[in-house]
Amino acid sequence: MPQATPSRQGQARSTSHASHAVPTPQLPPPPTTRAGAGSAATGNNALRQLRLRRFWTQADFAAAFEARSRQIGRPLSLSVRQVRRWESDNPPLPLPAYQAVLEALFGVPIERMGFQPQWAREEADPPDSGSGGSAHMGRGAGVTRSLRDDHERHDPVKRRQFVTGAVALGSGGLAAAAPASARAAARAPYQGSAPQQSQKYQGSQYQSTANQAVSRQPEAAARLAEQRVGVTPGAAAVDSTLVAGYSAITAQHRTLYWSVAASAMFAPVAAHSELGVGLLRATDSAALRTRLATPVAETALLAARLAFFDLQQPRLADGYFAVALDAAREAADRALTGAVLAHMAFVPAFCGRARRARDLMALAHDEAAGAIGPMQRSWMYAVDSEIEARLGAAASAGDLIARSEAALGGLGSAGGGLEPDWLDFYDASRLAGFKGFCQIATGRTGEAATSLERTLRTLPATGAKQRSITLADLAHVRAQQGELEESARLLGGAIAQLHRSWYATGVDRVDGVRRRLVAMNVPPRVLAPVEEARQALEAVRP
């Protein structure tokens, strides 16, 4: 599967592109701040990390909390607003009943969630003798309640939940809350209710009837400027050194993606995305904001990729895709915007929503036209070919693979341009893998085997995830050719690769071939090792 992590200074959008009434995903608005509250870029990181490691949005956290409270016989309600308060810079100590559920949910003491129990405050600042205050030396159960706690007790979360839930999508905090707050915005391009979203591929160009508003860079800049309202006083000033430091960490994440487990990578990348959006909101300089927007877009796209392709969490990916798209527009980087849209097209393609996938892919081609080199052009045609193959359009898939090969053949030609640093997920070996997938869809099994074997021979050391997919696809080909034992052997190799480098998309591809072998009544002696290995693979599932 293609993987992308952006990081390049953008190019100015051509003025020939007109605006159209196409819904535009927006960065989630900043949370309402109060005196003494920290920005969402800081806040209670201990609790936030516990949530992100489980790949939960704030809404998911609230739902899991309520379910766990019922399991332990202490049913309680929790709103997204209260989750945001707990993740703020100065979180209120939860009531004892809520502490018990939190400890049951996460399996750690309340003080390891970033809260300071009352007894800890009293030890740090002992009350005067005779004050009547007594510390409760527990782990949070039975602590002395503050006036705020008592107010919360008389203002139940359940009573507030309907109102706060209604505004939760519009008031989430930065990128950590983005999966909840930006989900509706991220889906906007998918929901083309008007004929203007229709795109047709004719000859060598995508004919766009509308949708050229994809690069509304001035509007994106205006939104981000408006969102500076409510930025926490005292936040770090954004200067060139800070932008360079943020970009350096983004580049390190891009490199680490290939060797660090996705389950370990997601939380720091999501936190870095959150930090970047907070810095964008705090930036006064338009020039610095444009420079910063590029690594922010790359980071958000990496978080979306990890969530969707590696961890099979499409809901979580939605918000990060929206953040990546808006930040890429803010950077005026058409190549990066096209890459984000191309990745977004996989989401509807995987669930068979043809029109939505094709509309997004057409937008990606339209946005990137004239702004990319031959390598990215080849990748985008290859992505388009896989989407068409998934949607059952074998002829279109074959034509697009031919275009991809022709584009890659243009490397080194005059005017080819420099490829961005983030384009480290595609090369000739990956193209051979795309080609093999397309040839499987068109029934050309012999040619598919040749393409897939070439991929296995030429994949770089960083191609472990692609290797599992290629082995599964080759197993599919061998099954079609009647070589059942060879198919089972290759499938076992794919599973072994997934043990070393978990990749949810690869697991799905393996399971598809397993189902095919079962349907072909493969002898149990052949299939048993595969089934045993597949069952053992669950032990390493994130």
Describe this structure in words.
This protein has 542 residues and is mainly α. Among the domains are: 45-125 and 135-157; 214-229 and 236-332, no CATH class; 448-542, Serine Threonine Protein Phosphatase 5, Tetratricopeptide repeat, CATH 1.25.40. The chain contains 24 helices and 2 strands. The chain has a two-stranded antiparallel ribbon with strand order 1-2.
Short description:
The chain is mostly helical. It contains 24 helices and two strands. Among the domains are: 45-125 and 135-157; 214-229 and 236-332, no CATH class; 448-542, Serine Threonine Protein Phosphatase 5, Tetratricopeptide repeat.
Per-chain topology:
Elements: H1 45-53, H2 58-71, H3 80-86, H4 96-106, H5 118-124, H6 147-154, H7 157-168, H8 174-181, H9 183-187, E1 199-202, E2 205-208, H10 217-226, H11 240-256, H12 262-282, H13 286-310, H14 314-330, H15 334-350, H16 354-368, H17 374-390, H18 394-408, H19 428-441, H20 445-458, H21 464-480, H22 484-500, H23 504-519, H24 524-537
Antiparallel strand pairs: 1-2
Calculate Rg over CA atoms. Answer: 25 Å
Q: What is the helix content?
A: 55-70%
| Shape descriptor | globular
Give the beta-strand count: 2
